[in-house]
Request: fold
Amino acid sequence: MIQYSLKCDNDHSFDSWFQSASAFEKLQGAGMVSCAICGSTDVKKSVMAPRVATSRKKADKPATETPKPKLSEPSTAAEQALKELKTQIEKNSTYVGDNFATEARAMHLGDAPERQIHGEAKPEEAKKLIEDGVPVTPLPFMTGRKSN
Reply:
């Protein structure tokens, strides 16, 4: 993505983001770039200073900058709640892997002792369980499998 400072023929200045320099040229050539203020399609790039990222040592960081969260840690309340839900499910149930549909059906029919389980099921297997009245709930995260 690239941000351009733009100016129309009525001397209005505004900024806009484009996928690339060539995307801007293509949209401008087709008359699809218009002034955010007056709607004019006679828009040109203004003189602008490039934004150049520099590497700074940790000691050089201004005190007002907030540290960015690590990707491996939840960054929002919703992500934290999902992490806690996953922890509770894994702590209080047995992971049965790809055998989930078979195990759930066997418990529903009384062929296996009831217990809390979690695992994976193909979409068609899960649909069939629901159609047959087997109480299942999809989880909003992967369980059991290790991912990189």
Remarks:
- Residues 77-131 form one domain.
- The chain has a mean pLDDT of 83.
- The helical segments are 21-29, 77-92, 100-109, 123-131.
